[in-house]
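HOLO CASE FILE
Compound: flavin-adenine dinucleotide
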Amino acid sequence: MPHHDFDLLVIGGGSGGVRAARMAAQRGARVALAEHGRMGGTCVNVGCIPKKLYSYAAGFAEDFADAAGFGWRIAQPPVLDWAALKANRAQEIARLNGIYEGLMTGAQVRVLRGHARLAGGHTVEVAGEDGATHRHTARAILIATGGRPFVPPVPGHELAVTSDDMFDLPVFPRRLVVVGGGYIGCEMASIFHGLGAEVTLIYRGEQVLRGFDDEVRAFTAEEMRKAGVQLRLRSDVARIDALPGGTRRVTLQDGATLDADVVLYATGRQPNVAGLGLDALDVRQQASGAIEVDEHFATSAPGVYALGDVVGRMELTPVALAEAMALVDHLLGPAPGRPARRMDYAHIPTAVFTHPPIGTVGLTEQAAREKFGAIRVYRGDFKPLKHTLSGRAERTLVKLIVDDASDRVVGLHMVGADAGEVVQGFAVALKCGATKAQFDATLGIHPTSAEEFVTLREVTRR
Ligand code: FAD
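Model generated. Tokens follow.
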């Protein structure tokens, strides 16, 4: 057996890379991890965590407004201290960066600082921060380099920012134009609207949130509109120009113009493969640039594996973590006394932190109809108890999709306060194959919005 410096060399210290490195090292493997940025990757630095923190910040605006109906008199109109929010976020993220570093050193993973690239069979070159390039060999190499925002080359695109920039904007944007109707665009629109910006979201398609249940999409769009986000659908940007004083002028393809302080492009993400040296080893990629892998995350190059956003399956942190654990079990065998983990992409729950948020698990109505033919749809929308006094017009949607033949609940969707928290629990039931009869046999927790899921009796449509 040839001698290698490491058993596993991971490129990328994000969700998937850190988890794989730590798990492999805990099983006794000699592990290194190369990272050219801040430890923790997208989720910790410019994704899930800062976004959720800002979503909480935005939520206070609703709370202040709702409080009046409950008898609270707020003496002065609350004002957002953008600098304080940014500083507190930065402090928390720095703490998390430190925790991730500590996880690596604690597990005896050697952290290689710098940009890594494949440099031949079982070999990785890291352009270190000291200016020198270091070569390392490893029995297995794992590419976990994630993704980055994709901005189409419209004239003036360099005047726009991406989600990476939003958390640290030097000045809070009074007027924000968001281009893109995916979950990141919708979340940013809701968050910055809540924080006090005037927000217009531009999307070229018929409806935002492609890929989600159609009824959920329409319901969420309507709630966002009611809250005050302006949605311009079937609309696209022709060009962006800079006006004196820093204003960005967005000209739409129909000739209309919008002036904004910041233009955010949230038009999708692409795999982070630049400068990785994939050609050198003939690592096959899909047309999107995503690295092709088999069910064990092996690429077309012997000894080279890839997972997480860079393989473009489901771009979520828990997915990258689960893939990492499945890979470590595959490479090193399962942990003592445990079965080997395999990645299962069915019933992955997810949330969208719009205001109100979405929680979803299982199939959309359309996908369930295609898969099972005969389905039953149960749905309800209602004014949540809180808003009887707050006066807010926001409504909540709950929806179950049931396979008629087996009575199994195959899709569960919610738009409303705490939808992510609610749906996480129901995801266990769906994973276990719960039937509608078992939902019906479950008592509710009263008074909650979640209880509606176990009291839906009337079939809405088939
Ligand atoms: P990443 O976390 O992106 O890590 C890749 C790492 O590799 C980075 O640290 C990068 O610096 C490093 N790297 C890249 N190339 C090299 C190289 N050549 N050499 C050295 N280092 C390199 N997911 C959720 O589950 N819930 C959410 O609410 C959520 N919200 C999100 C919000 C936003 C705005 C964004 C952008 C993403 C969000 N995601 C969310 C997705 C989630 O962040 C990703 O799915 C997850 O981070 C993917 O992990 P990963 O390990 O594949 O890659």
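CASE NOTES: The two ends are 61 Å apart (CA to CA). DSSP finds twelve helices and 20 strands in the chain.
CLOSED: yes
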